[in-house]
Amino acid sequence: MERTMRTRLRAGDPAAFSELFGEHAQTIYRYAARAALYRATALIPGVRLVARSADAMNRQGIAVAFDADGERTEWIFDAGSWPSSAHATT
Known about the structure:
single chain, 2 domains, 4-stranded antiparallel sheet
């Protein structure tokens, strides 16, 4: 009888930990890289948070904005799931 992943993990099976890590590492790295990007962006002088913003398709979200040379660039994120939904320059 094949043991479930949960049973294998609870039993301390090293191969189960390796499989689990292999399956989920890419997701973990992607979120860690995204978090690092947000932290680095926040350190740029002139960058600010826009609580309510919308792109050209009227998708609502939270934006990180930067004004330079008379133009505003916004990275707009879905407030619920945080993936970048748009990039707008006005």
